[in-house]
Write a structure and sequence with these properties.
extended; mainly beta
């Protein structure tokens, strides 16, 4: 028997109980969000009002607020309400003058329904931050997790100031943490031109519950790198390079050059 062969039976004789999150249900979404209103900052709104046209450059996801509510009419299922907050960066153009950078906030809300099961146990921990009675009484709800890529800008257009019912539903409140992401106050209403964007977004949503399982022990994990007490210390570059696998596939042409291209929604919004 070769010396590097592992005796699996001997390695898995012991087991240990762990606490982890069990995924009860999950889904993925590909959203095309059309005509999303952008609430511009005060200087950006002034630039747009005097511009002949505008274009959007990129969209950055700032926050996704997630709320989970049980559905009384569907046993064991929960509604996951998600509110996405985006920072939009674009350009306002006036004739042949150099474009002016404009920034603003866009908000999108959606709901998905997933099976979260039911639990008779209510879970409390030292990290609990419940501040209402409702939160205490509903501590048996599953946890909603959302993972999202920065959206892609698909199009943008400017509309003239609206009148009365033409304005539709207006955003009335912005969470302080979102407002802090902008250098100036956001223009929420008034007789102004309006910027709308269409974005494409990829996301996954899942519900998780606490669970305890028993797993086999192969080997305990421990750090292998020594701690460094000097801020200028760096790892030997040749030693670091020696641990990198040789990228053999990079030396051969891609067998499917036009397929499987992953969408790229990110962009240097902070630039």
């Amino acid at each position: 028997m070769p010396e590097n062969t592992i005796d699996t039976a001997a390695e898995t004789r012991q087991s240990v109980s762990i606490h982890t999150q069990q995924i009860t249900d999950s889904c993925l979404d590909k959203d095309c969000i059309e005509d999303l209103r952008v609430y511009l900052t005060t200087p950006s709104q002034e630039a747009l009002d005097g511009a002949t046209t505008a274009r959007a450059r990129c969209c950055e996801l700032l926050l996704a607020e997630v709320n989970v509510e049980p559905l009384n009419y569907k046993n064991g299922h929960h509604a996951v309400d998600i509110t996405f907050f985006y920072r939009i960066i674009g350009d306002a153009v006036l004739g042949g003058i150099r474009p002016t950078t404009i920034t603003g906030l866009a908000v999108f809300a959606k709901r998905v329904v997933l099976c979260g099961g039911r639990s008779r146990a209510k879970v409390f921990s030292s990290a609990d931050t419940a501040t209402t009675c409702d939160a205490l009484l509903n501590s048996d709800r599953p946890t909603g997790i959302v993972e999202v890529l920065d959206p892609m800008i698909l199009s943008a257009r400017v509309r003239e100031p609206c009148v009365g019912d033409e304005c539709g539903t207006e955003l009335t409140e912005v969470p302080p943490i979102i407002a802090d992401c902008f250098d100036d106050d956001l223009v929420m209403d008034g007789d102004h031109k309006r910027l709308f964007v269409t974005i494409g977004q990829f996301s996954t949503v899942r519900l998780e519950r606490d669970t305890q399982i028993t797993v086999p022990i192969y080997e305990y994990s421990a750090p292998t790198r020594e701690c460094c007490d000097d801020e200028d210390c760096v790892e030997d570059p040749c030693e670091l390079f020696s641990r990198i696998d040789f990228p053999m596939r990079a030396f051969f042409p891609d067998s499917r050059p036009c397929e499987g291209v992953e969408p790229r929604g990110g962009c240097p919004c902070g630039a």
